[in-house]
Amino acid sequence: MRCQQSYIDVCPLTEHTSPIPARLGFFFAALLLLVTVRATAVSILVTTTIDEISVNGQCSLREAVQAANSDLPVDVCAAGNGADLILLGSGTYTLEIVGREEDENLTGDLDLTASLTMVGTGQDQTIIDGGSLDRVINVDPGSIGVSVSIEGLTIRGGDAERNTGLREDFGGGIRNHGELTLRDVTLRNNIAFSGGAIENRGVLTLQRTVLVENIATWDGGGVFIAPGATTTIEDSRILRNSAVSSFGGGIGNQGTLALYRSELSDNNALAEGGGLFSDSMLQVESSLVASNGSDIGGGIFIQSGTSTLTNVTISGNESRILGNGGGLAASGTGTPNVTLLHVTITDNFPDGIFVDGSGVSSTVANTIIAGNQVADCVSIENSLMSEGHNLDSDGSCVTDGINGDLTRADPGLGPLASNEGPLSTHALVDGSPAIDSGNNDRCAASDQRGIERPLDGDGDGQISCDIGAFEVSRDLILADGFED
């Protein structure tokens, strides 16, 4: 089955690239959840799409949240008791009660001040629309330790932008101060000063979630992660978001970020990090960073902290300032520490990597940096350090023959394509010098697609891992850039 595209034109990633769960699937999941939650929790069924707090024999979304927050009945909404479950049917729930800057759930955004789970019938079935009155959802505004899970719906039309730079300007779709999990959720067309879709100041987990076409007028077009906050993103897509005036078109990270099996594509920032800006802790694994743009570090900009990238494809990104890292830039007073393992960096403009020598520690192993449009590497004070078995195509990154490095070599990369994986990769064509040329001592357990490493890619009977994010299997060999 294909992803339903009646509302969204992008599909979330799943472990088996399955379609968006349908209406019944979510309700069966909700029923299963009811069995597993505490016996004291209450199921609250929303019966109207109208935004209201009144006595009329209906249970609105706002009333359901109020019942969960207060543990009291509201109109016909059952009184909450513990970590309640709010069930939403298909339809568009537009927020209509005007009024910002209050955290009692009476006007503007939905203020979640108690732990709960909110479940819709699917991203293209259940839509919560902020109506441009305010952000859409405010999780734990009092920072009291609220835990919230939201599943199977779309959040759109949130507007927290008033250009004051105050906390009320953050998080156009969601502002989180608690512990928040989003699963099978789309956030689209939200706007804020910072964190166009989401501002996180607590603990945030995104699973199979899509952030698309959100805007921050300052930083973090998709997500802004505040200092001290923790964010984990899995099997998700962050697409076509913008940071209009500053950094982090897709993600602006000043906390701790782990990004697994996810895609950052077509995001844009004015200054640094079109796809991703980080000046703190960063871990990226089995992910794609493609076609993002900014002045510096078009794909990724790392300003400080420790960053590790493993099995990542960085392709087709653009830095608008020559020599400033079309694919990746590591530069800043925070002395960033960057490690690249099994990364493929290609077709970026103007260069693949820019590394500023001012205290920057940057090491590469089993990595391809080749085929970038002007130069593969721009390294000040030779600050890019090879740990062996890397490949470049113009001699700007590594020294030929030292520790297994290959320089001025054609890597033999196929076009960016699915290659039987959940995210696009550049496969190695038959005869590529990168096949079986990696260092097994630094070999990751699998490639970006999840294919095990090492394999005998060239059929010579010797098992060695490949250089780059793609491991050749004899079942998938490219000839002349096309699948057999």
Describe the structure.
This protein is mainly beta. Strands 10-13-17-21-25-22-18-14 form an 8-stranded parallel beta barrel. A hairpin with a 2-residue loop joins β38 and β39. The model is unreliable at 1-8, 15-24, 34-39 and 478-484 (pLDDT under 50).
Helices and strands in order, then pairings?
Blueprint: H1 23-36, E1 43-45, H2 61-70, E2 84-87, E3 91-94, E4 110-112, E5 116-119, E6 126-129, E7 137-139, E8 147-156, E9 174-176, E10 179-188, E11 191-194, E12 198-200, E13 203-207, E14 210-212, E15 215-219, E16 223-225, E17 230-234, E18 237-239, E19 242-243, E20 251-253, E21 256-260, E22 263-265, E23 268-269, E24 276-278, E25 281-290, E26 293-294, E27 300-315, E28 318-319, E29 328-346, E30 351-355, E31 361-365, E32 368-369, E33 375-379, E34 384-386, E35 391-392, E36 413-417, E37 425-428, E38 478-479, E39 482-483
Parallel strand pairs: 1-2, 2-5, 3-6, 4-7, 5-8, 6-8, 7-9, 8-10, 9-12, 10-13, 10-14, 11-15, 12-16, 13-17, 14-18, 15-19, 16-20, 17-21, 18-22, 19-23, 20-24, 21-25, 22-25, 24-27, 25-27, 26-28, 27-29, 29-30, 29-31, 29-32, 30-33, 31-34, 32-35
Antiparallel strand pairs: 36-37, 38-39
